[in-house]
Amino acid sequence: xxxxxQHPSRVICKSGTSxxxxxxxxxxxxxxxxxxxxxxxQSLMLMATSNEGSKATYEQGVEKDKFLINHASLTxxxxxxxxxxxxDSSFYICSARVGSHNQPQHFGDGTRLSIL
Amino acid sequence: DQQVKQNxxxxxxxxxxxxxxxxxxxxxxxxxxxWYKKYPAEGPTFLISISSIKDKNEDxxxxxxxxxxxxxLSLHIVPSQPGDSAVYFCAASDxxxxxxxxxxxxQVVVIP
Lengths: 116, 112
Fold this sequence. Notes:
The structure holds 2 protein chains of 2 kinds. In chain A, a hairpin with a 5-residue loop joins strand 5 and strand 6 (57-58). In chain A, the strands form 2 sheets. In chain A, strands 2, 4, 5, 6, 9, 10 and 11 form a 7-stranded mixed β-sheet that branches. Chain A has a 4-stranded antiparallel β-sheet with strand order 1-3-8-7, with no helix packed on it. Chain A is an all-beta fold. Chain A has strands spanning 4-7, 10-13, 19-25, 32-38, 44-51, 57-58, 67-73, 76-81, 90-97, 106-107, 111-115. Chain B is mostly beta strands. In chain B, 0% of the residues lie in helices and 56% in strands. Chain B has strands at residues 4-5, 10-14, 19-25, 30-38, 45-51, 56-59, 62-67, 72-77, 86-94, 101-102, 106-111. In chain B, strands 2, 4, 5, 9, 10 and 11 form a 6-stranded mixed β-sheet that branches. Chain B has a 5-stranded antiparallel β-sheet with strand order 1-3-8-7-6, with no helix packed on it. Chain B is globular and about 45 Å long.
């Protein structure tokens, strides 16, 4: 149980392109979904938290107009990197959780984004 | 500021023996702690968690111990199996926010 599917697993595209990443909880309804970014040799960095039907809460320093998050249902959240540039190249990973902070987050397998 | 610290980045252990991973934290507001396992090219997989009201939680071969006064937790894997070879992350959260604070991970290699 508690499977989270993230798609695509890898994207290579030209600078200026917008890229959408999907995160789905396959066998449970997620109260909250999270988006992280990971830089080489560093821990996961939380970008934003989203609850179904409401606006995402972004961490300090994360541009909400750059990283658009839509949490359309209890099983789907999307992250769109708008007008991506090479500095946006990174590993993006989502997680989903049922309930409050004392429940585990379940992670997708991540998306490797490379902007040329 | 690293609120969750995992020292000794790598550990090698013989199959069948015990693997012990350690984690220290600095934020006294943390009240929920988790261990994740990660294989290359995959996301972290939840292993086991513990609430701050407990000092031990056991699930099969995995046991997590929490020492609140020392702000320290550990993960014991016994017996270790070759499939346990992975990177293990310690994480913590508090009631006040949704964030999981992660350590940098420990590489475990189980030698057959």
